[in-house]
Amino acid sequence: MKYVDEFRDPELGRALSGEILSMVEPGRHYKLMEVCGGHTHSIYKYGVDDLLPENVELVHGPGCPVCVIPMGRVDDGLAIARNEEVIFTCFGDMMRVPGSEQTFLEAKAEGADIRMVYSPLDALRIAKANPDRVVVFFAIGFETTAPSTALTLKRAKLEGVENFLCVCNHVTIVPPLRALLESPDLRLDGFIGPGHVSTIVGARPFEFIPADYGKPLVTSGFEPLDILQGIQMILAQIAEGRAEVENQYARVVPYDGNVAALKVMSEVFELRPHFEWRGLGFISQSGLRLSDAYADFDAELRYEAPGVRVADPKACQCGEVLKGVIKPWECKVFGTACTPEHAIGTCMVSPEGACAAYYQYGRFAREREVV
Amino acid sequence: MTPGVSATDIGTRATPLREPEPAPHCSPEQGCITCGDVAVPLTALLVDDGRGLALCRDEQGRRETVEIALVGEVAAGDELLVHAGTAIAHLGPGGRS
């Protein structure tokens, strides 16, 4: 298949692995963060970390939109979903994310009309098919997904669909990266930049990372060879004393992003002053809400929601995992009280979550380390 | 025009058929195409420029209506990189014969 087989060639993989080995200085420890949950998933699915020298460590970043949703937002969604006239729609993974009392899936079992959709367009279609009900779409995701919600809201407005509303939980990638870089307990040597987020925002917004913090960032694709080459490019920068933004995923990432997508996002959304991230707390200007022009579609303005901040369960260490301070298997409840079937934290719910990826691909047998 | 596809297919797919379980795209083996930063290549079958939509299919032949407002001109046979029902990149005229 185009764009798949070429990027899983074992011969090329071995060659890249050898090249990486020749580039690292013995005795020096390299800590690289893959920002995006899709990368985390690929790394463990294909065993990319096993092809790296022991002194190159991959740390998982906060780039899974499901993992970073705080419990309070789930509770708000549940309060809206329980209204009788509402058909509540969300993506599949969101169904199993625990709120303070239950998940969307459990609320559905109790009778709430909650439906899984694959796209905001699906939710709009449900609205058009049910004119006597109100269809609420629980929007999550980084800049990859936000244009999809924006286009659907624009379409709803254009077509005069009045029974379609949105709970906007969209987030932006740059503010949490800056928060991570400011974090005193985290030392990183470079970043594997997000792939499809960069298709929308481009690679340019990440220039602050080399400019302000002196760290290289390489936007990379999701196939094993993409990731290996991304790592090789980061290590080459370190070896040559450079810190720049480079684009390994140039086949779909334009350096300046997708202008049409950025335009529709700026029409439909505006920045929230603050947004809460699970494990990271409140981060300024990191979340999106609907702009005044789209206020009629804002479910948070139409319905009462508790809007309460709910603390994460005490045993849950998703925050440290999301910041890359501990590895998933170092969490006290990993693989015991917290499993994909009965998740305590969001990192175990989503397949893109670092914990679920470790669990799924047999990484739970590793020795626990004292950090 | 692709055999078995008519212009009226665009935007009329029966969504409830895929209810209600969070599967198969959200299985831990495959990852979730919507929640993660994941996109899949699809081939355009029919394009409705007026409405900014294209009916596409994946390798297994599953069909999906896709927003094409972000990727410029699309023709039947083109390959698109699709995330959450929206084409986010144009991969070129891959399937065109």
Question: What is the gist of this entry?
Answer:
The complex is a heterodimer of chains A (371) and B (97). Chain A is of the alpha/beta class.
Q: Notable features of this structure?
A:
heterodimer, A: 371 residues, alpha/beta, Rossmann fold, five-stranded parallel sheet, 15 helices, 36% helix, 17% strand, disordered C terminus, B: 97 residues, mainly beta, SH3 type barrels, five-stranded antiparallel sheet, 32% strand
Largest β sheet strand count, sense and barrel closure of chain B: 5 strands, antiparallel
Query: Looking at the chains present, what oligomeric state does this protein adopt?
Result: heterodimer
The largest contact between protein chains, plus residue counts on each side, is: A-B, 61 and 43 residues
User: Could you tell me how far the N terminus lies from the C terminus of chain A, measured between alpha carbons in angstroms?
Assistant: 43 Å
Any idea what the CATH architecture of the largest domain in chain A is?
3-Layer(aba) Sandwich
Using the CA coordinates, give the radius of gyration of chain A. Answer: 21 Å
- What are the segments of chain B in which pLDDT stays under 50 over at least 5 consecutive residues? 11-30
User: Low-confidence spans of chain A: pLDDT under 50, at least 5 residues?
Assistant: 367-371
Q: N-to-C SSE series of chain A?
A: HEHEHEHEHEHEHEHHEHEHEEEEHHHH
